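pasting for the record
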Amino acid sequence: MIEDTSQGGETSYVSNIYQDNPQNGLILVDVGAFGRQGSNTYGLLKNGWTGLLIDANPDRIPIINNEFKNLQYKLVNCAIGSSNGSATLYVRGSVGSSSLIPSWETKYGTEKTTEVQVVPLDSVLTENNIPYNFDLLSIDAEGMDKIIFENLMASKYLPKTIITEVTSYGSDEEMKSLFNSYGYAFMKRFEEGNPHGNAIFKLKNNQLTCFYNDWHLGDCLWTTIYFNLILGHNDIDIVFYCNPAYHTELKELLLPEYKSRVAFKSNTECDKSKSINTH
């Protein structure tokens, strides 16, 4: 049986999703790794997964290294944000509540502040050779989850499964709608009623991904019109990578009943050799 140190059984749930896969071939990324207590990924790593762990708080780095000793992981000490730079990390008096957001969990008080490096998640993934369709992304970034997710969706990366904390998305329904717009199906809400509980999403299996780096607006217009025919005769969703300058105009070409089934993403960093496929 897998060792589950997660907040609400997330580790066991993910393990069941991938129970038919060889565990030593699976890759995870944990943003806000913190340590073994409450970890969504510790038990998976102990079960043979390989991981990239990311944490903004320099004080947590030796703790993580000690608690995850002998497991297959690489640890990066930085905060994840929208762009490269630096920011103030507010280290709260409650375990696991430190945040880049000054107003986050202020009821616990601020023990100290520290300046930390901020890097977009896709940059960290590229630097560490993480495959574009890695198996699991766990985000627990104390109010930054939505920003991190939306920025990642503008890159080439499409993790197969995502765990994230509900509270930074506004509400459960807003969160589900956002993930659905990017081709992710809602799987489970953990700890119902707890705004700091997690939810898990899985990339839809019946999803078509299309990408052409050198397409002009005219080509994209005709393709988007064709999507209406495809969607009308097939139970699939579509992710279309193209020039972001075209997105608004292209969305208007979709029939109203199909708008939620097509996600438009930027082609800026996509690898053309991996771009036309089905999941």
